[in-house]
Specification:
With 420 residues, the chain is mostly beta strands. The chain has 2 domains: 43 residues; 285 residues, Lipocalin (Beta Barrel). Helices cover 14% and strands 51% of the residues. It has 3 helices and 16 strands. A 10-stranded antiparallel barrel has the order 5-6-7-9-10-11-12-13-14-16. Strands 1-2 form a two-stranded antiparallel ribbon. The protein has a two-stranded antiparallel sheet with strand order 3-4. The longest helix is centred in the first third of the chain and has 43 residues.
Length: 420
């Protein structure tokens, strides 16, 4: 053990001696290399050596050295010599140092702010209010969207046996939005969507062999709709939407809203029957069932924008609201011009609306945008003709209403926005 300790101590002493000598050699070699490199630079670049006498620092650059402040080198001006060798141009040196305040730890990199070139490019290409050099110069915005929507639901509804009405098709409507910007963030906007009208019908002819789906009590209520030569039925659905929103904008990144919304949805159904003459049953009969939904309530929503280039964006939007549904129903039967049955009923229920959409946006000019996308509306808690079970016909038909249906609308949108 003693030999091991002695060997270890001698080994450590030897290693320390070798390291000390190696450090002397490295220091000497470094000095020689530095002096040699300096002589090579002066020999190859005499202009640089001569310019040391002409290197000047502006007052902005040498601002208060006695106050212990360091300023960026970009405010220095370098004159690369004279006597025919000067370039005659002053070159701003890119900030590569840090700015420090006296007695504080506030240090910020010179590359913290966006480049001037990007600011100039964005000012020319980006929309107002967007980009690192954005300015708030928008007072109004106007949107128009052409909506091509389809109403889903009630596909199998019919009061004529052995036939159904055709399915609802896509129909055109519009959305008009006017917004007033009070500053860069706050806005008040009004929007109207509509009028939408979906129409369905069927027309069946025969020789006294066309019957209805009515299960009537008393049975005489349905006499005018059985054994007919012709049945014609139609269902028209209408939708209008009005909004008043308080909206908050955050650049072209996100916007949120809260507001009031009024929606009116109607179903108007009619069945016409033509019977052959003779017998006590009426010849011409009509069944009419009209339903309205007036929905008023609060909604919240927002839009998220994702820039994909200086001129294009992708946006996603959503709205959700809860409404008081003031609904009503009226049922009428007319036989040979005389009213046989007429009842009406009004009620108040709770309805809702969820609206989702996605759009692609193209910045045509700094103040004009074009957009196209797809959207869907889901409206629960509404009253429709098909949900009332109108085939159960009796003297009390039309004295109650069921607001339990859910309707979906979906389709394409094409539009433009103008900023002023």
């Amino acid at each position: 053990m003693r030999r091991i300790l002695l060997f270890t101590r001698n080994g450590i002493s030897a290693i320390a001696s070798v390291a000390k000598r190696a450090s002397y050699v490295a220091l000497t070699a470094g000095v020689i290399a530095t002096v040699g490199a300096s002589q090579d630079v002066q020999a190859q670049y005499p202009l640089y050596a001569a310019s040391n006498a002409n290197f000047s620092v502006s007052n902005a650059s040498y601002n208060g050295m006695q106050n212990s402040q360091v300023v960026p080198a970009s405010s220095s001006v370098m004159n690369l010599g004279d006597a025919g060798s000067s370039s005659g141009a002053q070159s701003n040196v890119v900030d590569s140092v840090y700015r420090g305040s006296r007695g504080g730890a506030n240090v910020k990199s010179a590359s913290y702010t966006p480049s001037e070139a990007y600011q100039q490019l964005c000012a020319a290409e980006c929309s107002p209010g967007y980009g690192p050099d954005a300015s708030c110069n928008i007072s109004w915005y106007f949107n128009y969207d052409a909506l091509w929507l389809r109403r889903e639901g009630s596909r199998r509804f019919s009061l004529t046996q052995n036939t159904f009405m055709d399915n609802p098709d896509f129909e055109w409507g519009g959305r008009y939005t006017v917004g007033k910007m009070f500053d860069c963030v706050n806005a008040l906007e009004f929007a109207y969507a509509g009028p939408f009208r979906w129409y369905r019908s069927s027309d069946v002819s025969g020789a006294g062999n066309i019957n209805s789906r009515f299960a009537a009590f008393p049975t005489t209520l349905a006499d005018g709709f059985n054994g007919a030569n012709r049945h014609f039925q139609e269902l028209r659905s209408d939708l209008d939407s009005f909004e008043l929103n308080r909206r908050w904008w955050a650049w072209d990144a996100i916007s949120t809203l809260v507001g009031l919304r009024y929606l009116r949805y109607e179903d108007n159904y009619s069945l016409y029957s033509l019977r052959p003459g003779g017998g006590p049953a009426p010849i011409n009969s009509r069944y009419r069932d009209d339903i309205k939904n007036d929905m008023v309530g609060l909604q919240i929503g927002g839009d998220v924008y994702m820039p994909t280039s200086l001129r294009t964006l992708v946006s996603f939007k959503g709205k959700a609201g809860v409404y008081a549904n003031f609904n009503g129903r009226e049922v009428q039967i007319i036989n040979d011009g005389a009213t046989t049955l007429r009842n009406a009923f009004d009620d108040v229920d709770v309805a809702g609306l969820v609206e989702l959409g996605a759009n692609g946006i193209y910045q045509l000019t700094p103040s004009v945008r074009l957009n196209a996308g797809y959207e869907a509306w889901l409206m629960p808690g509404v009253a429709t003709v098909s949900r009332q079970r109108p085939n159960l016909l009796n003297a009390g038909s039309g004295t109650a209403i069921r607001a339990t249906d859910t309707i979906a609308f979906h389709g394409f949108s094409f539009g433009a926005q103008v900023l002023y």
